[in-house]
Amino acid sequence: MNPLLDFSGLPRFADIRPEHVTPAVDQLLAECRAAVEHAVAETTEADWQHFVAPLDDANEKLGRAWGQVSHLHSVMDTPEMREAYNANLPKITLYFAELGQHEGLFKKFKALKARPDYAALSDARKKIVDNELRDFRLGGAELPDDKKARFLDLQEELAKLSAKFEENLLDATNDYALIIDDKDELAGIPDDVLETARAAAEAAGTSGWKFTLQMPSYLPVMQYADSRELRQILYRAYVTRASEFGKPELDNTPLIAAILKLRREAAQTLGFNSYAEVSLAPKMADKPADVLHFLDELGQRARPYAEKDFAELKDFAYDELGIADLQAWDNAYVSEKLRVARYSFSDQEVKQYFPEPRVLAGLFKLVETLYGLHIRQDSAPVWHPDVKFYTISDHAGQRVGQFYLDLYARASKRGGAWMDDVITRRRKGEAIQTPVAYLNCNFSGPVGGKPALFTHDEVITLFHETGHGLHHLLTRIEELGVSGINGVEWDAVELPSQFMENFCWEWDVLKHMTAHVDNGESLPKELFDKMLAAKNFQSGLQTLRQIEFASFDMHLHDDFDPNGSRTAQDLIDEIRRQVAVIIPPAYNRFPNNFSHIFAGGYAAGYYSYKWAEVLSADAYAMFEENGVLSPEVGHRFWSEILAMGGARPALESFKAFRGRDPSIDALLRHNGMA
Ligand SMILES: [Zn+2]
After folding, report:
1. What is the H or E stretch that residue 377 is in?
2. Known active-site residue 465
């Protein structure tokens, strides 16, 4: 039997071969399409049992099988698996696009909601129906035919413009190079960066050193080059990418104007006032004014700290570096010098205190203490010998969920760290299907007979991903569409993950998680204090910068008139005058390279970074107020937030846990701004 078609238990990673992919996908897609046909048929009752449940069953199988394929593609990449993945991806994408646009399904969901027995459905089921109807409406399903055609054209046109925006930025970045022949001009730049620059020049057939606007070349110059002139030249090139100062065919200015106009038209076609309202419809934040109010409040509170940060920077530049007129191209350089002068410690030093067994034991102990659970290593088929597998059970010994832990970097694994779902909790008749998750990281593995050693950042990453994992695994919801991480609002998904990071800054937790790899001693308190101070270095300036971008994004998609005479650049200039402490030079064209909002999925959503930080910090403060290891608060966090999945609005879950609306105080305090 094709192992991808075996849904009786855990994935059969030892048996899956690339040649299994296409037959499995084709068969499951055929079953899904048959389920859709059946669901929309006149003769099919528009109730849960006949309409939604069979669709869920079919889609779950496809999702599970394809999840295993894309997981292997991410963590055990081989030419054969990549080929199988790429050959099938378009079919999967097409199927889900069809589902999202399917008029028959939309009609049937409306019919389901109109039935008298709808009222008797559980809250979770009602939420699923509401989410479906909302997404169909946001996709234009309710528009009359002429408007629908125009709406779909707009979507297509917007997709093209966004792709072009990203291409222009990439081309403009790659189009630039600066060759330096005189080594004296390169003083201060680290040797490895210089070696790379030397090799790049050689590859380009020239002498000297070649610098580009790609991060690994640009950033070290800005941070370390003693030459102000060199920094100024590269800075200007960087902040004017894809603008009127470069090649006209790579200028993003007209694309920005066009994107904003089309987004407004699309929003109005759907009956909204602005694109920001469309963006917020499926999110936790209610309306643009709420987000702007949130950003203003945070900005006002952070401002004095940003002013203090900036004054310190200017003083240090003058006193220690002889720079009397601090400029935009000096900031990174002076900041780096100031940071080293104040908080120098090395990651290497810290790493010796975080051997893997100690860190995992500390992490598991924390989860066990907070939630009254038990975590034990277990066996399951895995995709690589380094992968570990664990089972979580409750105090009665009942299995709650399971997870794979794949910690080390490999050539066959994509970069970064991420959590993904393998199996979602749901009721199947009398039985409960327990959830399973993948936790993937890219840490360095053990060397020379010693355990793997993690930097503090890596420990934070592990806690972060575990937070996502627990969100998926500790759900108590029994309906696929809103169980675990499914159906959770986009601006609320980082709450459980960022929440977990806080414990990595908690001395009482951390000291038990450390043991020097050679002598077993715990992390010295003085070193921890330095780490903590370094964490909050320039947090005022960094907060204001995020607020400047988020506020620009929200205004641009809300009250800015895309058909008026003001430009996006005019708007950011104005916002900077109100918000920023550091005003960049007039030639700075930040909007032209703000791909998060013009090419990524962050339009009228950039605020979510700060939003999630506020929620997670405020949730954590509940623990600080009652004891950070309080099982009572842990139990409440589990039942009101982790357990609820997407079955109720995230704001309601937060309030049920906290007993009030979110407050920004805890985040400010955690960042040293209180
Ligand atoms: Zn995350």
Report:
1. strand 374-378
2. yes
